[in-house]
Automatic annotation (TrEMBL):
This is Deoxyribose-phosphate aldolase. Signal peptide: none annotated. SUPFAM superfamilies: Aldolase (SSF51569). Pathway: Carbohydrate degradation; 2-deoxy-D-ribose 1-phosphate degradation; D-glyceraldehyde 3-phosphate and acetaldehyde from 2-deoxy-alpha-D-ribose 1-phosphate: step 2/2. GO terms for biological process: 2-deoxyribose 1-phosphate catabolic process; carbohydrate catabolic process; deoxyribonucleotide catabolic process. The keyword Secreted does not apply. It comes from Galactobacter caseinivorans.
Amino acid sequence: MSINAAELSPAELAKYIDHTLLKPEASREQVLAVAAEAIEYGFASVCINPVWVSTVAEALAGSDVKTCTVIGFALGATTTAAKAFEATVAADQGADELDMVIDIAAARAGDRARLVEDIRAVAEVAHAKGKLLKVIIETSLLDHDAKVLACQASVEAGADFVKTSTGFNGGGATVADVELMRATVGPDLGVKASGGVRSYEDAVALINAGATRIGASSGVAIVSGGASNASY
């Protein structure tokens, strides 16, 4: 069933959003401002680079907002051992959710075994520490078959979500990609649409396509658009 402005309030939409600041030049003040916005608006999480995990976890303490960070970001071209170590450190510093980038070359080469090995190593760390793993497949760099393969490998490896994009390698979330990802992973795995989501209408279209989480640096604008459209 499609969602429209009368059915999804700004507060409900906020629960879908990972409020994101991944710019490498982001300052402590900017990171803390994003954390404060997340608490004010009730976003699902704050997604920041690993260097800010402990800072954000402390800022969010006592709230329902999760601390999310990225692993192997933004290229996915680090070793599996490095990704697992990075995940361990992030979890120990207070991250609740880990968004890892796959081995993109393996996906393009059709190497399912390599993809599963890479993802599973991080999934095992995440789940041993009670954390959630989202797998960034970087749709802009993959063709149809490679997207399907990456999603299938994520399911096999025990991921909790698949995610469209880093936002750093061109492209971004599209309705078609989210529909494909949802069809591939089935109804139980999460699908995160990330990259270029800037408005209430963008977010609702992606949720209608099957997304259960939205990654965006424009979270406040998105829910504010919902406030202007909502009928309550």
